[in-house]
Amino acid sequence: MSSSPTPSEHVSQRSDSVSGLNHAVYQPPFYYQCAINILKPLYRLQVWRRSHQRDNYQQEVAQRFGKHYPSRPIAVSDNVTHHGVIWCHAVSLGETNTVAPLLEALLAAGYQIWLTNTTQTGFARGASRFADEIAQGQMSHSYVPVDSPVVIETFLAHVQPIAALFVETELWANILSKLAEQRIPSILVNGRLSASSFASYQKIAAVSRSMMKNLTLIIAQDNESAKRFRQLGASSAQIRVAGSLKWVINAPKQDSSASEPCVDEQSNTLHDSISDQMSLAERFGVTGRPIWVAASTHSGEEEIALSLQQQLLSQAALTDTLLVLVPRHPERFDEVVELVKKSALTMARRSSDEAIEAATQVYVADSMGELMIWYQLADVALVGGSLVDIGGHNPVEPASVATPVIMGRYTQSCQSVVDKLAEVGALYQPYNAVYRPVTTSHAHISPDTAAPASLTDEACASAAHTAGDIRAETALIYQQLAAWLCDLALAKRAGRAGERLTRQQQSVLTRQVTMIEEVIAQQSHQEPL
């Protein structure tokens, strides 16, 4: 599963400036414009069906279709030079979390931010993550405008951005052409293009080419993505490789209405991470129990997690194991609770303020903004979106607090990060050839729970051939999970390896901020239209 590029695919990782901003405008093909005009009313109907019962429905419609927007962000500090408004678009919750440290760095540098989201989940996360900045006027927040030229022109006239940032993959042809027309630099940050996304973009080659050509700069996560962006029509001069922002330690701000007092969710030292885990265990009354978290789970993953928990409880050494189950989407909380009830496992529910008792086997953490607490509390983290074909959520979050990670096969959204963590033994993924387990301790582990060894390239190829057997993959996940929970000292050593690696990767934020500011500086020196 390694995504290491060949030498011929190498793209310069220097943060030297983009040579000469391209002022050519590449219009999307006519058929794309026709499709947008046809789909626009259908999209409005879709928004109504999805959101008309929500309190913010009228706000959502007004913002998506260019009828009304919040006020522009303002400069609130006299201690820094104010540079103007940067528009940043993050599709959903994951992209919002990923880009949050970058936005905070830009705010600290004197920029104001206009944040847009596509999904309801992303919008809710943006509102909570940046509640203080929005309240102070440093940041404005809205739903993204539909990709209609008239709506986009209205939006840009209101926001007046000096640059536009797009996070990871989602791009819109009319938005990019309008930005190019107005000489507003457009930058793809943390750019990632998986094989499946690349194939989809290839099917609309003319549209994709116009988008690639209209982008001012593509800051790619890795060389494989950079290669695919070039194949879609971007030039090498447009592309820089800077690593993934997923590595940046991101301490999410908690909802002030949370029932428990706020804790420091990101420890600065290894000693802090251990002491914080102990204090959390005392607070929740779980000291001395093996604990694992199944985090950001999707439909189909909770069943697997509950089955794994039942198997763990059948082991003599693991009869008091606690599973913390954290569904990804709030609208599924009740559904997941019903699944736990059907499993016959003893449950407590976070949203009901139910205490974790000695007999509690599953704790449903149906709350928002507390994920890092559960990662810090746990001895092992199973990161969701990887057992079903979602692409995998960010494994750096648990790694940053010295918690070892397990993921399934579907990690195309973060494969380069997965591989790096696997190489140091901090993350286990079945059939990943680069996984190198940390040295085992002297604690006794039964043969049934012994950790699976790393695979040779030949063995990995053979395993991949038979990887369609989900039961075999789940058995390997159980084996590693049980091995770590039976030997918490070994699990902590694996977690420490991930924590060290995470700290080494923090410079990616500085690199991406520098590249963005270079493009903005170049644009400011261009002759006006």
From TrEMBL:
Pathway: Bacterial outer membrane biogenesis; LPS core biosynthesis. The record marks E168, K246 as: Transition state stabilizer. Keywords: Cell membrane, Lipopolysaccharide biosynthesis, Membrane, Transferase. InterPro entries: Glycos_transf_N, Glycos_transf_N_sf, Kdotransferase. One of its GO terms (cellular component) is plasma membrane. The active site is at E95. It comes from the Bacteria. One of its GO terms (biological process) is lipid A biosynthetic process. It is found in: Cell membrane. GO terms for molecular function: Kdo transferase activity. Residues 61-247 form the 3-deoxy-D-manno-octulosonic-acid transferase N-terminal domain. It holds the Pfam family Glycos_transf_N. It catalyses: lipid IVA (E. coli) + CMP-3-deoxy-beta-D-manno-octulosonate = alpha-Kdo-(2->6)-lipid IVA (E. coli) + CMP + H(+). Coiled coil: none annotated. Its EC number is 2.4.99.12. Involved in lipopolysaccharide (LPS) biosynthesis. Catalyzes the transfer of 3-deoxy-D-manno-octulosonate (Kdo) residue(s) from CMP-Kdo to lipid IV(A), the tetraacyldisaccharide-1,4'-bisphosphate precursor of lipid A. Belongs to the glycosyltransferase group 1 family. PANTHER family: 3-DEOXY-D-MANNO-OCTULOSONIC ACID TRANSFERASE, MITOCHONDRIAL-RELATED, 3-DEOXY-MANNO-OCTULOSONATE CYTIDYLYLTRANSFERASE. This is 3-deoxy-D-manno-octulosonic acid transferase. It comes from Psychrobacter halodurans.
